[in-house]
Write a structure and sequence with these properties.
Layout: E1 3-8, H1 15-29, E2 33-38, E3 57-59, H2 73-90, E4 97-101, H3 107-110, E5 116-121, H4 134-151, E6 156-159, H5 162-171, E7 181-182, E8 217-222, H6 232-244, H7 247-251, E9 253-259, H8 266-281, E10 288-292, H9 296-305, E11 308-311, H10 321-327, E12 332-335, H11 340-343, E13 350-353, H12 357-369, H13 372-388, H14 391-410
Parallel strand pairs: 1-2, 1-4, 2-3, 4-5, 5-6, 6-7, 8-9, 8-11, 9-10, 11-12, 12-13
């Protein structure tokens, strides 16, 4: 048994958080001892496994500010993460391995525990913000420098895709000797087994107010309400779909835009408002249903109801939602960049398209005019997930990295 401690900035609901939860669960099933430390854990906005006792979560440092007068979010996140690392150190917790992700600035302090440090890079943090203003450049310079410096202090760096590995190499030019390992996020298949077929009545009575369309086509977008998720592309593509179909076919179409929504995050509030205004402007208000924050079973219900998932982010680092859709035998239309290039097989499990609403709308029309296409691609998607992105493959890969790291330590 190996003692493994996870440290994560904010244990809410998102792809990074899902990976941490899945990693912790997989190691626990392997017989390892697991603890998760975080600066924020809202029991009303988190994954079920972190509040039902399956995983032990210790929250510390949430009294520290998340921003300074609405600014300096990154600096405050760095400070909060360092505080969590110091808390682990002061508590005398001596795990054999510490799994850190998102922010590497805490690694120098974690090394004082003498544990082996794994840093999981979802994507270089310095690429997730702009530097258009001079003051922003000055502010970001030390943060970016320490991100690269401290990332290089990890004993092992893992990334979520070949796309991120290439980005890591081109971004962190001072770390030429580090070749990240690839650890694809897994699909939490146990969470996909409770399909709505087990409660057929619910397939006709929808809690979200989605119209019950007999033989209809519900298209689904699942992403956080953030501008970088490019959700407006789905709205604009849906508008083009209306122009492509005849009246009878269009009447059977509906778009659901579902996403994580945190009232503490200003951008979530703003972008949700922008999307609803866009839907109103395009005269689509009655054809689009917005769902803000939902449970795991809600997500399954939505995936079961749809004919196709629309995955709009450009340059997404990996993207777990397409895998969830494919496992549920639903085809995916995704942006032809980033992680989806490694998960979605064009014209087999879905379609890869550029950032063109017309192309997306035309592709959506194929599922309306050819209903068998959803079934055919859905079967292919399920096979691909089972073969390449199963929780078993993820668990074995992660466990191998940890055991190899400890074997290196003992030599």
């Amino acid at each position: 048994m190996v003692g493994v401690t996870f440290i994560h900035p904010d244990l809410g609901i998102g792809g990074a958080e899902r990976l941490v939860v899945d990693a912790a669960l997989s190691l626990k099933r392997k017989g390892h001892s697991v603890l998760i430390y975080t600066a924020h854990h809202d029991r009303d906005h988190c994954f079920e496994e972190t509040r039902n006792g399956m995983l032990t979560v210790i929250e510390t440092g949430d009294w520290l500010p998340r921003s300074l007068l609405g600014r300096c979010f990154a600096l405050c996140a760095y400070i909060r993460m360092i505080y969590v690392a110091l808390y682990i150190l002061m508590c005398g917790n001596t795990p054999e391995v510490i799994f850190c992700d998102q922010l590497s600035v805490c690694i120098p302090f974690l090394r004082l525990t003498r544990a082996k440090i794994i840093f999981y890079c979802h994507f270089p943090d310095l690429l997730l913000t702009d530097r258009e203003r001079f003051l922003k450049k000055v502010y970001r310079f030390p943060l970016d420098y320490f991100e690269e410096l401290t990332t290089g202090m990890a004993d092992l760096v893992l990334v979520n895709s070949n796309f991120t590995a290439r980005t890591f190499a081109s971004t962190f030019s001072r770390l030429p000797n580090i070749t990240p390992g690839i650890l694809y996020p897994s699909l939490s298949i146990s969470g996909c087994e409770e399909t709505p077929e087990l409660f057929p009545e619910q397939s006709n009575i929808d809690m979200f107010g989605i119209p019950d369309l007999d033989n209809g086509c519900v298209f689904l977008s699942i992403n956080r309400f953030e501008r970088k998720k490019n959700i407006s592309l789905a709205v604009q593509a849906f508008r083009h779909l209306r122009e492509t179909l005849d009246v009878d076919k269009w009447r059977l179409c509906h778009l659901v835009i579902a996403g994580g929504f945190d009232e503490r995050v200003k951008e979530n509030i703003e972008y949700y408002g922008e999307l609803t205004m866009l839907a109103d402007k395009l005269n689509l208000k009655n054809k689009i249903t917005f769902v803000r924050s939902f449970s795991g079973s809600d997500k399954l219900h939505l995936l079961h109801r749809c004919v196709c998932l629309l995955y709009t982010p450009a340059g997404e680092h990996f993207g777990i939602v397409p895998l969830e859709a494919m496992y549920m035998r639903r085809p995916v239309i995704a942006h032809s960049s980033g992680g989806p290039l490694e998960t979605v097989v064009d014209r087999v499990t879905g379609y890869l398209r550029d950032n063109d609403p017309v192309a997306w709308g035309n592709t959506m029309a194929e599922f309306v005019l050819n209903p068998e296409l959803c079934t055919e691609m859905g079967v292919s998607g399920r096979i691909r997930v089972d073969e390449k992105f199963s929780s078993t493959a993820f668990s074995e890969n992660l466990n191998m990295h940890i055991l190899n790291l400890l074997a290196r330590k003992s030599k």
